Amino acid sequence: MATYIVLLGAPGVGKGTQAEILSERSGLAHISSGDLFRENIKNQTELGKLAQTYMSQGELVPDDVTIAMIRDRLSRPDCKAGAILDGFPRTPAQAEALEKMLNEFHGQVDVVPLITAAESVLKERLNDRWTCRAVGHIFNAKSNPPKHVGICDIDGSELYQRDDDKAATVIHRIQVYLDQTSPLIDHYREVGKLVEIDGMQSIEHVTQDLLEALKK
Ligand code: AMP
Fold first, then answer.
1. pLDDT over 90 at 106, yes or no
2. Sign of the C-alpha dihedral computed for residues 213, 198, 27 and 184 taken in this order
3. What is the mean pLDDT of residues 136-153?
């Protein structure tokens, strides 16, 4: 049966970085809803145009289009063995839709690691974050710098600071997480799928804790 992992946590906590590592180690597909939206923006699709109006404000893109995009992505052949979901679900309605979708694919959400960190750390990390233009590899000027300033170690593309990583939008994104996404914590705890991971540790230690959680 396929394995589906939902990474939960506030913006800047390290979901994207850890999802990349876990995907490499497990061979499961890494699905980042934010990356999918950014790809649509880059390709100037209708979905991209719509998403951009919400993303630039730090608001969530409406559930219906987000759910349809994830359904399409999960239906692709590289998700046959399962997936690591990074940034989805972000609302109770998305969580419900995910459950139904995975039922159709004869699977379920297996485990939900919740990565946590203090709000001051989230703000600092987002402020120092650099993202690669090509596919969204993530670096941090202080804790995980690229070998050459401004260039992605992995694919050599340009690194840029996301507009929504700038201070004013970050504060709003964290509030949106607390208001709209944090109810999912109780939901996944109640169904026995939540595992809390201390995201204040080094990248390597967080990965170790995640791998331990996934073994169980
Ligand atoms: P992320 O890259 O996960 O930080 O997401 C960047 C932005 O994309 C968010 O601030 C939202 O505007 C949008 N977004 C990503 N995932 C979702 C989702 N599951 N539901 C709604 N909006 C999303």
1. no
2. positive
3. 95
For the segment 36-84, what is each residue's pLDDT rounded down to a tens digit? 999 999 999 999 999 999 999 999 999 999 999 999 999 999 999 999 9
Adjacency order of strands within the sheet including 3-7: 29-32, 82-86, 3-7, 109-116, 194-198
CA of residue 33 to ligand 1 center, whole Å:
6
Rounded CA-CA distance 206/109 in Å is: 21
Question: Which token pair is 126?
Answer: 């987002």
Determine the average pLDDT of the residues in 164-185: 95
Model confidence pTM above 0.90 = yes
Neighbours of 157 (CB within 10 A): 15
Rounded distance between C-alpha atoms, residue 131 and residue 150, angstroms: 9
Residue 35 tokens read as: 């990356």
Annotated catalytic residues are 15, 90, 129, 162, 173
Please provide the average confidence, as pLDDT, over all residues in the chain.
96
For residue 179 the two structure tokens come to 């208001």
pLDDT at 216: 75
Of 90, 123, 181, the one to substitute when testing ligand 1's pocket (max ligand atoms within 8 A of C-beta) is: 90
